[in-house]
Every structure is written in C-alpha cells, then in structure tokens.
Amino acid sequence: MTIQEPVTARPAGRPRSEKAEKAIIEATLDLIGEGTGIAELSIEAIASRAGVGKTTIYRRWSNKEDLVLDALATLKAPLPPLAGVSVRDDLITLLDTMRREAGQTRTRCVMNIALGDSDRYPRLLERFFDIAIEPRRQAMREVIRRGIASGELRPDIEVEMCMAILSGAMIWHTKWGPAGDLPADLAERIVDHVLPGLAA
C-alpha cells in the first residue's frame, strides 16, 4: 500500500503579486519622500528598498516614469462622496480633502519634488494631472454648475475663475500659510468668505 503525501495547495499568485506591487510603490514614495529627485531615482534603488528584483519591477512598468506616475496617483485619495444638498456643503467637502492630504508629511514632500521636476518630465505632469487632478477639478466644476442651475449661484459667474479662487486659497494655506497644522475649519472658512460674492 502506497502512502500518498498530502497535497499542499500552491499559494495563489495574485496576492503575492499585489504584495510586491505595493512594496514597489511604497519604496518609490519613500525614496522620493526622503528627498531623492526623480532624475536621481533608480530602479536599482527602488528594487533594493522593496526587496524585489529589477525584473519584478520591469514586468509591471516599462520605465521609471510610469512607475513614478502610478506611485503619485496612489497619494490622491478617492473623491469624497458629495451629498448634493447644497453648493456650500459640497465645496467644503472638496476643499477639506485638499486640507487633509496636505497635512500628510510624506505626501506633501513627494508632491513638491515631483511637481518641481515637471519641467524635466512634462509627460509625467500631464499624465498625473489627467489621473489625479482633473477628476477633482471636474467634481468642483459640476458643483458650481449645479449651483448656477439651481439658482444658488449667480448665472454670470465664471466657473473656472471660481475654481481658481477656491482652490487657490486652500493651496496658499497649504504651501505658504503659517507653519503647523491647518485648522480643521479652514475649508469652511474659505468657502464662507468666497460664497457671498458668488451667491445669487
């Protein structure tokens, strides 16, 4: 009688693949967050930090620029759900997302370095804008247009100018405002300062 060895199921490949991919993304963000410019960033350094071989990286990304783009895109949290009850509430929600993201040290450092290298890597900036920035701009654009259609906002306002004023105020605080944590009510204060000039 032959005793059969118990069959051990092979671990599924996908979870390990996802684990490696996450390690590569995190290693990329860590290196940039520590001050490594995109030009100086190497696949070798990323592989070493992630604990994978270079071939593992090249199986997923054809070049460094595509890897950096995917890494940057993960820094942007998904768009928050908008209640759609009032323009004021939805604008506060959108701006508060910007405030919370700016409060994350690594995110802020990585974004500064990545955008600072945009002249050398224009395709990176263009693709990052399409993936991470434009969906948020479109969400704000739709909120403002909805406000015009509902009569909450003046019909003669320039939508893009409104977006620039609202987003610009938040960016000013996140980039050049007083040092320290941003006030929890900052988004509300910005909207309440701007909205009277836009209201119908």
Would you kindly provide a written description of the structure presented here, covering whatever features stand out?
The protein folds into two domains: 14-67, Arc Repressor Mutant, subunit A, CATH 1.10.10; 76-198, Tetracycline Repressor, domain 2 (Orthogonal Bundle), CATH 1.10.357.10. It is built from nine helices and no strands. It has helices at 13-33, 43-50, 54-60, 64-75, 87-102, 105-116, 122-150, 159-176, 186-198. Helix 5 (87-102) runs antiparallel to helix 9. It is elongated. The N and C termini lie far apart (89 Å).
- Which ranges are low-confidence, i.e. pLDDT below 50, for 5 or more consecutive residues? 1-15
**Major sheet description:** none
CATH superfamily membership of the largest domain:
Tetracycline Repressor, domain 2
Structural class: mainly alpha
Radius of gyration: 22 Å
User: How does the overall form come out from the CA principal axes?
Assistant: elongated
Question: What is the succession of H and E elements?
Answer: HHHHHHHHH
CATH structural architecture of the largest domain? Orthogonal Bundle
Strand content: under 5%
Helix content: 55-70%
Average pLDDT confidence is: 85
N- and C-termini, Cα separation: 89 Å
The figure for the number of domains is 2
What would CATH call the class of the largest domain?
Answer: Mainly Alpha
User: How many DSSP helices?
Assistant: 9
The third-level CATH topology of the largest domain is: Tetracycline Repressor, domain 2
Number of strands: 0
